[in-house]
Here is the input.
Amino acid sequence: EFGNCIEEFERAYGAVVDVEVRKSRGSHTYLSIHKPLFLGQNNDDAVDSDIEDVEDADPAHLDTVCPTLEYGRIEYHVVYSASWRVPVLYVRVHTNAGVEMDCTRVTDMLVTDSKVRGAMDAVEFGGALGIQDHPELNEPFMYLHPCHTATLLRAVAPAHGVEIGQRNYISSWLSLTGAAVAC
Here is the structure.
């Protein structure tokens, strides 16, 4: 059923989002979403003023005038957890130079709302954003801990008149959980 949900998501959003259903070596499917990311834009007030200063400048000179706007990619994977019986969001961020960013830097960049950050830090056993091997790729990824996902979906969806079925399950789930890491 999870495979059908992610295929529905790909059909619905594939034309507007860089999204792909992938099969792992074990023939399990997961959803891969890629987004561009301008590194440094969320936490550096000086960057905003630099952008205003060079707004009309030749784009070829942007790197020399404003080197903090290094371009990177953020990669999200939605993987079904048989243990938790819910999807789990895995995250990995690379700079254009191919350097993988650490958990602290990613958290600083993606979790910009102080209330969300406080709630994530309050999750027992190291917070809501941790590091573990991706279950399908066996590579280290950051992930949002799924401990309250099922409870959240059961409580929030009916209270807001949202019927979560196969057709909109992934989009509903991402709208509730993905916002914590800018997905």
The CA atoms of residues 67 and 82 lie 44 Å apart. The radius of gyration is 18 Å. Helices lie at 2-13, 45-53, 62-65, 103-110, 114-121, 149-159, 169-177. Confidence is low (pLDDT under 50) at residues 42-65.
